Amino acid sequence: HMHPRSEADFWTHAMPWIQAIFELRDRRFVNVRPRPRWWTGETELEVQAYNLDKSSGLVVAMNHEEGPLEEKITFETAPLGLKKGKPTWIWRIEFPHPYTVDYSNVTDISPIRRLADQTLLAFHDKLPKTLNHSESWPANNPVMFLVTQSPALVESVDGKSSQLWLPDSYGVRVTGVHDNATGRIDLHVTNEHDTASLLLPAPGERKSAEVTLRRLDRMHGAGVLPGFEPVTSEITEAYGPRLLRCRIPKGSHELMVR
Fold this sequence. Notes:
By secondary structure, this protein is mostly beta strands. It contains 2 helices and 17 strands.
């Protein structure tokens, strides 16, 4: 691995992690009563949790052992501030360890690389009272879990990638509902920028989805909202699991996915 030759190199190399910290700047610590209790010495796996907004929370696990650690964690969901009885998605997020990243072509004018690996771990029809997860936790490298009730997350804004996919990021905010019976997703999106790209789990095994949008900030002369129009969308497997990507223009919109 390469060590930074100067403080300037350090900050240049650290930009993906700094970007992620910026994206989580509004987080608020909450106690999800994790088990086992790392603060009593029951384990070397430290677990901390945060509320991000009204629809999302973040749980972070850090293994302080020198090597991988097989462990099961359990935590309560109520302190995260989510709504009871609502569909919930669990996304796993991990950065590569800084010592394993190739920095040879990174300069102070390079675009910030997206290093976070974010995959959909589970979906629940209703928010469980407790969640648990087992894996071989990597040594000295945090693993994060986004617990969210937003069906869609912000991938990029004006062509610039988010480090973490979140439902509220860089002036783009997504809220929505998921109909378990039909699979239909209804979203409300506000976008302060020219364009934004959203990601959501692709419906079923279909090669495409019907995505329509209508503007909520423009009315016809009679004072009624315009009708729904098709939106540019595609199924992508670039990140592993099949995800639906939708491109959203500036403004306030209602989005329907079927």
